[in-house]
Amino acid sequence: MAAGVECWGEEDAPVAVLAVHGRTQSPADMRALAERLDVEGLRWLAPAAAGQSWYPYGFMEDRPGDDPWLAWSLEAVDEHVGRLVEAGWPPERVVLLGFSQGACLLAHWALLHPARYAGLVVLTGGYVGTEREELSFTGDFDGTPALLAGCEADPWVPRTRMAQTEDRLRGMGAHLTSLVEPGAEHEVSATAGELTARLLRHTVGGTGHR
What angle do CA 166, 176, 162 make, to 5 degrees? Predict the structure, then answer.
């Protein structure tokens, strides 16, 4: 569930970034990441999860049969993407960027709503669902530039789910860069940050913005 939103950056920027934070985080963490990336030509929109959590379970754990949290959070993404469209940023000018639980939420939402986006950045995450679930995602990302980054032994995001998410994205037409680093750090590494900044700069540059 969303509990407000923070916006910053250039109001007339050619590209907007929907930045979704992880569990126990807030939009302030996404603002700190944006400052670290230091890319011009962007309008940032960062929703806040109620209670600093988009859903109260692990993204590969069994969910209650009457689970409302994932549906509410996916609907929140719907609403914020819709607001960006209404404000003048169609999907092809919107980058979806998430970290940790936010990355899982955005990866899942994007697979349910494939289209040509300006970019998709999944930082330590993968789509939501148990290993037993048979999930069907269909559609075409039409060459959307995408980055999926994480660590080989991340304690929260198994490498297997990262690989499954990579396969889904590539199979649906995303132009994916995959970064899997050694170690178990659950963070945005220096290399992941550099690749994210490069994707954002390339996206802004593609609009003719200087």
Answer: 25
Residues 149, 125: Cα–Cα separation, whole Å: 8
Q: What angle do CA 204, 208, 209 make, to 5 degrees?
A: 60
| Architecture of the domain whose range is 2-205 | 3-Layer(aba) Sandwich (3.40)
**In 3D, which of 155, 119, 128 has the Cα closest to residue 57?**
128
Residue-wise pLDDT tens digits, 101-143: 999 999 999 999 999 999 999 999 999 989 888 888 999 999 9
pTM: 0.94
**Phi, psi values for residue 103, rounded to 5°:** -65, -40
For the chain, the domains span 2-205
| Pair 54, 11: CB distance under 8 Å | no
